[in-house]
Amino acid sequence: ADQLKDVRHIQATIGAFAAILKNGHVVAWGHPCCGGDTSSFQGLLRNVQEIQAAKRAFAAVLSDGSVVSWGPKGHGSDGLVRVKEVEQLHATTRAFAAISSDGRIMAWGSPEHGGDCSRVESDLSNL
Predict the structure, then answer these.
(1) How many CB atoms lie within 10 A of CB 127?
(2) Are 85 and 65 spatial neighbours (Cβ–Cβ below 8 Å)?
(3) How far apart are CA 109 and CA 30, in angstroms?
(4) pLDDT per residue over 76-126, tens digit each?
C-alpha cells in the first residue's frame, strides 16, 4: 500500500490498473496479461507524464516525449520505446496512436484495430 501514495493519475485496462505517482514513477497491479506487471520495464518508467490504456496494454509518455508500452504483444505493446517527441497519445482496444511535435502520426499494435496507418499516411501528413 505504500507504493500507492501520492498518486497523480490512474488508468485501467480490462484487468489491471496503472498509476502515475507524483515522483513520475509508475505502479501497476492486476493481471499480468492485462498490463499489471511492469517489472521488466521499471527502469524505463521514470518521469512519466501521461498513461493511456488499451484493452490489455498501457502506454506511457515520458517527460522527454518518448513512449514506453507494456502488456501482451498484439495488444499495442512490445515493451520498447516506440516513438519520440509525442504531444498526444490515444488508444483503441488493441493499438496506440501518437502525434509528434512535428505533427506526424505514428500508430502501433494490431493493424485491424488501427495500429497501422501506412495506408493513409500521406493524408495524415497534410493535416
Answers:
(1) 8
(2) yes
(3) 21
(4) 886 665 677 899 999 999 999 999 888 888 888 899 998 888 888 777 665
Cα separation, 49 vs 65, in Å, equals 9
104: which residues sit within 8 A by CB, 6+ positions away? 124, 125
> For the whole model, what pTM was predicted?
0.89
Sheet harboring 16-21: ordered strands across?
7-12, 16-21, 26-30
* Residues facing 52 on adjacent strands: 59
d(CA 106, CA 90): 11
- Supply the DSSP string of the chain, one letter for each residue: -GGGSSEEEEEE-SSEEEEEETTS-EEEEE-GGGT---TTTTTT--SEEEEEE-SS-EEEEETTS-EEEES-TTTT--SSB--SSEEEEEE-SSEEEEEETTS-EEEEE-GGGT---GGGHHHHTT-
